[in-house]
Amino acid sequence: MDTLPYAYSPIVDRPRIQWPNGARVAFYVGLNIEHFEIDKPSTSIWGGTAHLVPDPLNYGWRDYGVRVGIWRMIEIFDALGIRPSVLLNSDVCRHYPGIIQAGVSRDWAWLAHGKTNSALHHGFSQDEEKAVLEEVVETIAAATGRRPQGWMGPGLTETFETPRLLRELGLSYVLDWCADDQPFALAEPGMYSVPYAVELNDIMLLVAKGFTGEAFYQAIVDQFDQLYAESAESGKVMALALHPFVAGQPFRHPYLARALAYIAGHDGVWLTTSDAIADHYIASISRAGIG
User: Fold this and answer.
1) What domain count does the chain have?
2) Residue 223 and residue 238 in contact, taking contact as beta carbons nearer than 8 Å
3) How far apart are CA 57 and CA 48, in angstroms?
4) Which among 151, 129, 130 is positioned nearest to 140, based on CA atoms?
C-alpha cells in the first residue's frame, strides 16, 4: 500500500499562516497523563526487569508521575499561565480523579489518548476499533465535561480507519503524524494534523538519549529560536512533549521551568493549546476557501 493519509505539501509553497494578535509561534505543551497496567510491560527506564510481573522498578518509576511529578509540573504551568494539552488515557479518569479535577479547574484541553498506555492502538476489526474509540471518547467527555477534539494514539498509533472513525465521533484532528511544523489537512475530509514532537520529547531526550537537564533546556531553547526566526515568513507550531514521570523528576524541575519561562518571555508567542491551534487553522482555511 502506497496511499498516504495526507497529500505531499512542501512548506515553502503554502499560503502564509497568521496566528491571533500577530503571534509568530503557536506554542503548546503536550502533557501525557497515562495509566499503566501492573502486569504488562511498557515504557521502562531499565529493560532488565521489564519482563517481570510485577516489575516494581519500572512500574514505580512510571507511577511517580501521577503521584508526585504532575503536581510539581502544575506549579510551573500555573506560574507561567500555560494550559497544557493533556493526552489522556481514559483509564486515568477512574484511577486518578484528583488529576482530572485539577485540570478541569484550570481549563486544560483534553485529548483522547487511548484507554491505557499498556496497549498500542492496533489489531482491531473496524467494529472493534469503533467500540474502543467510542468508549475512550465518552469516558473522557463524562469525566472532564468536555468532549475531546483531538486524538493521539498510545505510542502515536492508529489504524487506517482511525481518522474516519474519529471524525464520526466529532473529533477534528490528530497528533500522530509528526511530519510538519504547521497543521495540514488529512485525506479524510474534515480531519487535520496538528504538529506534535516525537524528538523534542522528554522520553526521547532524557531517557533514550540520556540528556542532562542542561542539555534538555538547550534543546528546547534551540528548537524555539529556530522556529521563531523562521516564523517571520509564516506562523509555526512548537510542541513540547512531556511526561510527569520523566520531566516531573526533582532534578529536572529547574531546567523545565527555565525553558518554559524563556519561551513565555518572548513577544509574538501564542501560549495556547492544540485545540485552539486546530480551531484557528480550520477557521482560517475555511475563510480562505482552501479546505
Assistant:
1) 1
2) yes
3) 10
4) 151
Q: Round to whole Å and give the CA distance between 186 and 243.
A: 27
Q: How far apart are CA 117 and CA 192, in angstroms?
A: 23
Instruction: Say which CATH number the domain at 22 has.
Output: 3.20.20.370
What stretches of the chain show up as alpha helix (H) in DSSP? 56-64, 70-80, 92-95, 97-105, 126-144, 162-168, 202, 213-230, 253-264, 274-288
With H, G, I as helix, E, B as strand and everything else as coil, classify residue 283: helix
CA 284 vs CA 24, 140, 276: distances in Å = 15, 28, 12
Whole-angstrom Cα distance, residue 32 to residue 246?
10
CA–CA dist 232, 245 (Å, integer): 36
Range of the domain at 95: 18-41+48-111+137-147+197-288
35 contacts: CB under 8 Å, gap ≥ 6? 66, 89, 91, 92, 95, 96, 116, 117, 118
DSSP state of 249: S
Is residue 153 a part of any domain in this protein?
no
Q: What pLDDT sits at residue 4? A: 87
Confidence of residue 291 (pLDDT cuts 50, 70, 90): low
Kindly state the cell numbers that stand for 271.
Answer: 501560549
**Joined grid coordinates for residue 114:** 487511548
Q: How confident is the model at residue 225 (pLDDT cuts 50, 70, 90)?
A: very high
Q: How far apart, in Å, are the Cα atoms of 212 and each of 28, 176, 270?
A: 23, 27, 28
Cα angle value 66/101/135 (rounded, 5°): 80
Please give the torsion angle defined by the CA atoms of residues 142, 192, 270 and 238, in that order, rounded to the nearest 10 degrees.
110
Q: Is the dihedral of CA 180, 183, 185, 188 positive or negative?
A: positive
Identify the residue whose cell numbers are 519561551. 263
Q: Is the residue at 181 inside a domain?
A: no
Cα angle 29, 238, 2 (rounded to 5 degrees) comes to 105
pLDDT attached to residue 286? 74
